[in-house]
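Hi support team,

I submitted a single chain yesterday and got back a structure, but I'm not sure I'm reading the token output correctly. Could someone confirm the output below corresponds to the sequence I sent? I've pasted both exactly as they appear in my results page.

Thanks,
R.
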Amino acid sequence: MNDTSRDVLDRGSLPALLADRARRASDRRLVLDALAGLVAGALFVVLRPPMWIPLAALGGCLAMFGTWGILDRELSEASAGRRARSLSHLRTIVAALGVVTAVIFGFSFLFGMMGSWIS
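Hi R., thanks for writing in. Yes, this is the structure output for that exact sequence:
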């Protein structure tokens, strides 16, 4: 096993891996991820190409990843108080929305593939 794979295994879970990746990303990258995910998701909803629901959900996942990273960075710079609590709550809500969009992606992709397979 090489050092890179050991490093990934030492981090543990998928949420820990995503949090680490967001914390290592630059501010510019996090803003780009949030905006690109939002624009892509909205574009798929408006244009409705084949399999638009899983594609829009992937855009939502990317937007939530970037937004979570931005909120996490702001929280680390905030002093304890009302602002820190608000940022913490927002970060939790965004993480939950990210999980919801990931679940929507998984099920809609699965059902989309099964629909074409069964037909």
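A quick pointer for reading it: The mean pLDDT is 88. Let us know if anything else looks off.

Best,
Support desk
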